[in-house]
């Protein structure tokens, strides 16, 4: 069930409650008139109050039974029921020709369903109701002058035309709103995608250099950031230039993607993993002790070194890693410098190893 169907199902009970309210007002109005009418009090009580109210109640009760379940053409049944309800009032208050104008109510109700066929159906029904009532009731026909009849018919037709025009313009407006909304959603999606692309390295799916520094800036902006156990890890693929020169850039790209995948696999969800540039990667870890950080890096390094690659004629790939913990008063530049020096030491001391703050492991 869509949103419109849900609102439509809620409309039927509301209309029935309105009909019950009109019935109560009818009883109150005719009850007051009972004390001032020039007609026989007993006849007025039965024929102007009791019998009409019984008919109106029967119509409302029947409509309530109909709308307990979803039925085809329920909107037509609603319009017919409301029209019959109004015709009972018109016949009961035959001396008040103005009551005829209540036939506009079903026309107004038809606008809710935005159906041209339903509007035409409601108009034809109203016109036939006028014809039938005037044909069967000489008293009502005598009380309604020719000018009043012409005015009534013109008003019904004019109301139907206005409602149909409102329907067409509402449809045009809704289509325009849907179009504008869709365009805004498409633009928002494109902007989100562009923003993501500007922060993600397309080759590895990791965060890029820009995203890493933005995240690092946010972490360092936290008061007493050094108490958060912040660790910067720099990782570099060993002998990567030789891989490119010997086996080609396609093989080099495969190696980068493999190392990136291992980085993601061995890090926790809160670790910020990025491709820092070329064959170099950076990880910012927050909330873990140095022992845990190094254990994860060592496990990853060993797993990488034990894997051979068909594109490299069965040779393995190794990585060198430098780790530095953020200390109190340490600047961004110093943090990077010391992590980079640890990485440099890992390279100088034989590669395929992890160095923490200048201490070889």
UniProtKB/TrEMBL annotation:
<keyword id="KW-1133">Transmembrane helix</keyword>
<protein>
    <submittedName>
        <fullName>GGDEF domain-containing protein</fullName>
    </submittedName>
</protein>
<dbReference type="InterPro" id="IPR043128">
    <property type="entry name" value="Rev_trsase/Diguanyl_cyclase"/>
</dbReference>
<feature type="transmembrane region" description="Helical">
    <location>
        <begin position="118"/>
        <end position="140"/>
    </location>
</feature>
<feature type="transmembrane region" description="Helical">
    <location>
        <begin position="146"/>
        <end position="166"/>
    </location>
</feature>
<dbReference type="InterPro" id="IPR050469">
    <property type="entry name" value="Diguanylate_Cyclase"/>
</dbReference>
<dbReference type="InterPro" id="IPR029787">
    <property type="entry name" value="Nucleotide_cyclase"/>
</dbReference>
<keyword id="KW-0472">Membrane</keyword>
<feature type="domain" description="GGDEF">
    <location>
        <begin position="228"/>
        <end position="359"/>
    </location>
</feature>
<dbReference type="InterPro" id="IPR000160">
    <property type="entry name" value="GGDEF_dom"/>
</dbReference>
<feature type="transmembrane region" description="Helical">
    <location>
        <begin position="78"/>
        <end position="111"/>
    </location>
</feature>
<dbReference type="Pfam" id="PF00990">
    <property type="entry name" value="GGDEF"/>
</dbReference>
<feature type="transmembrane region" description="Helical">
    <location>
        <begin position="44"/>
        <end position="66"/>
    </location>
</feature>
<keyword id="KW-0812">Transmembrane</keyword>
<feature type="transmembrane region" description="Helical">
    <location>
        <begin position="20"/>
        <end position="37"/>
    </location>
</feature>
């Amino acid at each position: 069930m869509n949103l419109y169907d849900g609102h439509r199902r809620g409309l039927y009970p509301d209309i029935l409650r309105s009909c019950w309210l009109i019935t109560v007002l009818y009883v109150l109005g005719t009850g007051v008139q009972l004390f001032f009418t020039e007609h026989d009090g007993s006849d007025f009580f039965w024929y102007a109050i009791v019998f009409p109210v019984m008919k109106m109640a029967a119509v409302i009760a029947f409509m309530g039974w109909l709308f307990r379940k979803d039925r085809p053409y329920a909107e037509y049944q609603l319009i017919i029921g409301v029209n019959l309800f109004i015709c009972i009032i018109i016949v009961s208050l035959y001396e008040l020709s103005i009551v005829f104008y209540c036939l506009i109510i079903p026309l107004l109700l038809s606008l809710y369903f935005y159906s041209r066929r339903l509007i035409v159906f409601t108009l034809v029904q109203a016109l036939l109701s006028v014809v039938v009532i005037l044909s069967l009731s000489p008293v009502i026909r005598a009380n309604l002058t020719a000018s009043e009849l012409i005015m009534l018919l013109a008003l019904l037709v004019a109301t139907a035309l206005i409602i149909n025009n409102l329907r067409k313009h509402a449809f045009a407006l809704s289509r325009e709103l849907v179009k504008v909304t869709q365009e805004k959603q498409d633009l928002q999606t494109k902007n989100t995608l562009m923003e993501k692309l500007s922060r993600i390295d397309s080759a590895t799916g990791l965060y890029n250099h820009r995203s890493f520094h933005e995240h690092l800036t946010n972490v360092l902006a936290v008061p007493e950031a050094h108490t958060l156990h912040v660790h910067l890890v720099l990782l570099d693929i060993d002998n990567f230039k030789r891989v490119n020169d010997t086996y080609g850039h396609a093989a080099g790209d495969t190696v980068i993607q493999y190392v990136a995948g291992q980085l993601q696999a061995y890090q926790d969800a809160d670790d910020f993993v990025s491709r820092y540039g070329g064959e170099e990667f950076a990880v910012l870890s927050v909330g873990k002790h140095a022992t845990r950080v190094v254990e994860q890096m060592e496990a990853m390094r060993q797993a990488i070194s034990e894997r051979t690659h068909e594109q490299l004629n069965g040779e393995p790939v190794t990585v060198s890693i430098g780790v530095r913990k953020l200390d109190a008063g340490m600047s961004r530049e110093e943090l990077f410098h010391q992590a980079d020096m640890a990485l440099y030491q890992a390279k100088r001391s034989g590669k395929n190893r992890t160095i923490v703050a200048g201490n070889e492991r």
